[in-house]
Design a protein that fits this description.
This protein has about 400 residues and is mainly beta. Helices cover about 5% and strands about 50% of the residues. The chain is built from two helices and 36 strands. A four-stranded antiparallel beta sheet has the order 1-28-27-26. A four-stranded antiparallel beta sheet has the order 2-3-4-5, with no helix packed on it. Strands 6-7-8-9 form a four-stranded antiparallel beta sheet, with no helix packed on it.
C-alpha cells in the first residue's frame, strides 16, 4: 500500500511539473510566423508575417484568434496608444485602427517597410528597414509623418525612457540616442547589432546577434557591459516589474531578476531547435511569446508566476501585512513562502544564509493588495539554516527555514 501511495504521489508531482511550461495557443491562427504582439485592454493582437499575414485578435487570453480586416499584409510591428492600434507592414507603411481591428486605415506613411514602432505620449515613432530612410515621427496619430534626422539607417529596435529615445540598428551603427524627441541624435558607444531594446528604471538593455547576448548601460549608453547571457543571439527583450525576459534564436526564453547578473532558461514547452522568439507581451497574469522561424511558429503563453516564482493566490484584501512560515519546512529542494499585503506597495522578499549574506531576491516589485506565494528552489545550496525577510514600506519581518538534503 505504501509503495502504491508513493507511486501515485510521484505521478501527480510529475504531472504538475510537466504542466509548468509554455502552451501553444493558436486556434484560428494556425502555423503562422508571429513577429509582434500588443495588448489593448483585454485584447491581445498578433502581427503575422508572410503567407496568411495580417493582424490577428484574441479576446480570451489567446485561446482563440480571429483575423482582423488587415488581412493582406505582412506585419512586422505593432504598437498601442490609447484606443489606437498601429501596425507596421512590409512595403506599405503604417496602418491605424481605432476600433480594435474592425477597420484599418493606411496612414500617410504608406510606402515604407516598418520594422519597429514605439509610442511616447502622443508621439509615434516608426523605424524603417529601408537603409536610407531611418526613423519617422508622427504627433497626430499617423495623419502626418516627419522623417527625423536619423535618416540613413535601417532601424531594428526602439525603446523610450522619458525624453530619451533609443534606436537600434545593425553592426557598425548599434544604438543611437535622442534626448529631444528625435530632432538630433548621437551614437552611443554600443556599435554592434541591436535587435532588441528594453528599459528597467535607469538601466538600458540591448539584445545583440553576432557578438551575442544582452548588454546593459546605466548611463544612457555612454558605456555598456555584457551581462552573463553572453552566448545567445537575442531578438527580443521586455521588462515586467523587475524581471527581464530575453527571447533567443535557438534556446527560447531566459529570465533575470537581478539586472542581468544571472539568467535562468525558462523554455519548457517551446519547440526544440530554432525557436526564434520575436516578441513578448503581458495580459491577465500571462506572458505571451510570438515565435517565427523555419516552421516553428505561433503564439505561446505561460502564467507569469511560473517564470518569476511569485503568484497571487487571493485577491481578497488582507487587513495587515504578514509573512507566513514557509512550507514544507524542513524542505528539499524547494519551498513556498506566503505573504500578504493590505495595500498596493513595493515588496521585497530576500533569502539569506546563516551568516546574513544575501543569496537570492525572490520578489522585488510593486504589487497590488492581496496574498501571494513565492517559490524558492535551493538546489544549489547545502543543508543548513536559512532566513527570509519581507520588507514593504515600514514593515519588515524575518523567518527561519531549514534545508535538509
Amino acid at each position: 500500500m505504501k509503495t502504491i501511495f508513493i507511486t501515485i504521489f510521484l505521478c501527480i508531482m510529475s504531472l504538475q511539473i510537466s504542466n509548468a511550461q509554455w502552451e501553444l495557443v493558436n486556434i484560428g491562427m494556425g502555423n503562422v510566423e508571429v513577429r509582434s504582439l500588443a495588448v489593448n485592454g483585454n485584447n491581445i493582437f498578433a502581427g503575422v508575417f508572410g503567407t496568411g499575414g495580417g493582424v490577428y485578435l484574441s479576446t480570451n487570453n489567446g485561446l482563440i484568434w480571429t483575423l482582423t480586416s488587415l488581412s493582406n499584409q505582412s506585419v512586422y510591428s505593432l504598437a498601442v496608444n490609447g484606443n489606437n492600434i498601429f501596425a507596421g507592414t512590409v512595403s506599405n507603411g503604417v496602418y491605424l485602427s481605432t476600433n480594435s481591428g474592425t477597420n484599418w486605415t493606411q496612414t500617410s506613411l504608406n510606402n515604407q517597410t516598418i520594422y519597429k514602432l514605439a509610442v511616447n505620449g502622443n508621439n509615434i515613432f516608426a523605424g524603417t528597414y529601408n537603409p536610407n530612410n531611418g526613423l519617422f515621427l508622427s504627433t497626430d496619430n499617423g495623419a502626418t509623418w516627419t522623417q527625423t534626422s536619423l535618416n540613413n539607417l535601417h532601424i531594428t529596435s526602439l525603446a523610450v525612457n522619458g525624453n530619451n529615445i533609443f534606436a537600434g540598428s545593425g553592426t557598425g551603427n548599434g544604438v543611437n540616442l535622442s534626448t529631444n524627441n528625435g530632432i538630433t541624435w548621437s551614437q552611443t558607444s554600443f556599435i554592434q547589432s541591436a535587435y532588441a531594446l528594453a528599459i528597467n528604471a535607469n538601466n538600458i538593455f540591448v539584445g545583440s546577434i553576432g557578438v551575442q547576448g544582452v548588454f546593459m548601460s546605466t548611463n544612457n549608453g555612454s558605456t555598456w557591459t555584457q551581462t552573463s547571457l553572453n552566448n545567445q543571439n537575442v531578438y527580443s527583450l521586455t521588462v515586467n516589474a523587475n524581471y527581464i525576459f530575453a527571447g533567443t534564436s535557438t534556446n527560447g526564453v531566459y529570465v533575470s531578476n537581478d539586472n542581468g547578473a544571472t539568467w535562468t532558461q525558462k523554455s519548457e514547452g517551446l519547440p526544440n531547435g530554432s525557436t526564434l522568439v520575436r516578441d513578448f507581451s503581458f495580459l491577465n497574469n500571462y506572458i505571451f511569446a510570438g515565435l517565427g522561424f523555419g516552421g516553428l511558429n505561433g503564439v505561446y503563453r505561460r502564467p507569469i508566476g511560473e517564470l518569476t516564482g511569485i503568484k497571487p493566490i487571493s485577491n481578497e484584501v488582507p487587513n495587515k501585512f504578514s509573512l507566513s512560515q514557509n512550507y514544507p519546512n524542513p524542505f528539499n529542494p524547494s519551498t513556498k513562502i506566503k505573504f500578504a499585503l493590505p495595500n498596493s506597495s513595493f515588496a521585497k522578499l530576500v533569502v539569506y544564509d546563516a551568516l546574513g549574506r544575501e543569496l537570492e531576491t525572490l520578489v522585488n516589485e510593486q504589487l497590488n493588495a492581496g496574498t501571494y506565494e513565492a517559490n524558492w528552489i535551493a538546489s544549489n545550496y547545502p543543508s543548513g539554516v536559512y532566513f527570509y525577510t519581507l520588507t514593504s514600506g515600514d514593515y519588515s519581518e524575518t523567518s527561519k527555514m531549514i534545508l535538509i538534503k
